[in-house]
Amino acid sequence: MIPQKNLNLRSFTLCMRVATELSGRREVILFAYRTRNHDELHVWRELDGRLSFYLAGDGVLFKVPELGALQTHLCVTWDSTSGLAALFLDGKRSLSKIYRRGHTVRAGGRVILGQDPDSFLGDFDSDQSFVGEIFDVNMWDTVLADSVIQGMFAGKREPRGNVFDWESTELRINGDVKVVTREL
């Protein structure tokens, strides 16, 4: 995914729709943003089924229902000033956690969906690859209100992402990937 603006972020909301039949003790990555030297922002399903995101270091983990074959609307929010981080699954908000207060997500990286780049432009581990569907990926450079995220899940037409807008973001395809247009 090619961003519409630099990912020099002090807050964000990242949303996507996900479906997978991968289960069991396998970690898979949903979203990866890596600069030359750092994994800046990664969203994972951990070995134990928890969902997590990492900002250039240790992650914040959330115990939530397992992802499955039915489409799940997933959003992650984070604000640097307060450190507040939360996760939304199908419009339901998790508890808030304090995470990486004062951090900035640095610009100059690459975004890859469904694969963990172990280096800036490659070196992938096939055991961490996502198998399933990831679509409707949108990102904003602010924390959206709970009601806006709940509206997106409910199918309301909300403002599209200003960092990534799935409807207009340029995608570069590698590997066995199919891009399918869907009506939401």
TrEMBL record:
Keywords: Calcium, Disulfide bond, Metal-binding, Signal. Binds 2 calcium ions per subunit. GO terms for molecular function: metal ion binding. GO terms for cellular component: extracellular region. Residues 1-184 form the Pentraxin (PTX) domain. Belongs to the pentraxin family. This is Pentraxin family member. The lineage of its organism: Eukaryota, Metazoa, Chordata, Craniata, Vertebrata.
